[in-house]
Design brief:
By secondary structure, the protein is an alpha/beta fold. The protein has 7 helices and 21 strands. The protein is 22% helix and 29% strand. Helix 1 packs parallel to helix 6. The N and C termini lie far apart (60 Å). It binds flavin-adenine dinucleotide. The site of flavin-adenine dinucleotide has 37 residues, from helix 1, strand 2, helix 2, strand 9 and helix 6.
């Protein structure tokens, strides 16, 4: 489509790239300064590593919270950021960030969302999480249509013949959830031990014993189109046999791996696969683009959540000066500033 036919990008004050713990706290820090945010994450839910990699694990080094579950921390950060009504764009990977002549920024996602931002804060952690794919020649031709690495709604697979690959929580949870709803379910895992919750593994074994699903120990090695069903998946079993399974869909859950991806292509100076920043503004090599949390690097950097919170507080101040160079910023405490309390929607503290 010619550029002239495309609607102009939405003008916003700031864009935060990454809705991990540090990006979520940045909504709060910018909000206190009266700056509105749009926050974008390639994952379908906020929380970054905390939610994706270790939601049930306790964290012991968040100041004033002697013990806090990783998902609990994310829930608390979302609650704290609520008064500032950020717009969330979840399931969107940011593919382009470009500084315009005006000093503003063009931000675009893979799904075509286009924003025109006064400043950009990158809180991209270790990069956007990508699913590990089936390593079978020619699998690309089936991906998205018959081979899936993420399930948004189990109902989409009701009445179908399914092969589920993997041995972790996602594979086992979906096996148990879809057994009985799908026409058939075959679980393929490379070994007899599973990494999933023991109770779910036990449920799966009960379903196998009751003849309601099939369990194969082996690896998927080939995939091809088939006349009867959508595809044939060939599985090499650990005892050396080969089994061909007709299926409508293959759901493969091999976990996620982070990919720095597009962030490395925005012309920002990199150091050790992270964005170089100064420790006064946490600004990257491009004025107006800030980087906080695990994505940045400076001498002495510690990849800790609390470091990201500190970086966010300073970056917010500098982002304010970047967007509004003519305005003065008065330093205030939340305890005693009635204007901050108004922004937070809390009753003024007694004098
Ligand atoms: C097992 C484990 C235990 C840990 N325990 C602790 C602990 O006890 N204490 C502690 O302080 N830290 C701990 N950490 C580290 C902590 O989780 C990280 O420091 C923290 O998550 C960093 O937060 P972040 O917001 O910077 O990045 P992340 O949490 O990585 O979030 C970044 C987000 O950015 C998104 N993103 C990246 N690129 C793009 C793009 N192009 N478009 C859209 N979205 C994008 C990603 O999808 C991701 O959701 C632990 C980490 C692990 C793995």
């Amino acid at each position: 489509m010619p550029e002239d036919d495309i609607a102009p990008p939405t003008a916003v004050e700031t864009v935060i790239i990454g809705a991990g713990p540090v990006g979520l706290f940045q909504i709060f820090e910018l909000g206190l300064l009266g700056i509105g945010t749009h926050i974008i994450d390639s994952l379908p839910q906020p929380g970054g590593q905390c939610t994706e990699l270790y939601p049930d694990k306790p964290i012991y080094d968040i100041p004033a919270l002697p013990i806090c579950g990783a998902q609990e921390l994310v829930d608390r950060l979302l609650e704290q950021a609520k008064p500032f009504k950020a717009t969330f764009h979840l399931g969107h990977e940011v593919t382009e960030v470009r500084r315009l002549e005006s000093g503003r920024f063009h931000v675009e996602t893979a799904l075509g969302t286009r924003l025109d931002a006064g400043a950009v804060v990158i809180a991209g952690g270790v990069g956007s999480f990508q699913p590990r794919r089936l390593s079978i020649p020619g699998v690309e031709a089936f991906e998205g249509k018959h081979v899936h690495y993420r399930v948004r709604a189990g109902a989409n697979f009701a009445g179908n013949d399914l092969v589920i690959c993997g041995g972790g929580d996602s594979a086992l949870d979906w096996t148990v959830a879809l057994c009985g709803k799908a026409r058939s379910v075959t679980l393929v895992h490379r070994r007899s031990e599973f990494r999933a919750a023991p109770a779910t593994v036990a449920k799966m074994r009960d379903l196998v014993a009751a003849g309601k699903m099939r369990l194969l120990e082996g690896n998927a090695v080939a995939i091809r189109h088939d006349n009867q069903s959508a595809l044939q998946l060939e599985v090499r079993t650990t005892d050396g046999g080969a089994i061909s399974i007709g299926a409508d869909h293959v759901l493969a859950f091999f976990g996620l791996h982070p990919k720095l991806g597009p962030i490395a292509e925005w012309g920002l100076q990199l150091e050790k696969r992270a964005l170089s920043v100064d420790t006064e503004k946490f600004q990257t090599s491009v004025p107006g683009i800030f980087a906080i949390g695990d994505i940045n690097w400076y001498p002495g950097k510690l990849k800790l959540i609390l470091s990201g919170f500190h970086e966010g507080a300073l970056a917010a101040q500098k982002a304010y000066h970047y967007i509004y160079p003519e305005k003065r910023l008065v330093f205030q405490y939340t305890t005693s500033s009635s204007s901050l309390q108004k922004k937070l929607g809390v009753a003024p503290a007694p004098r």
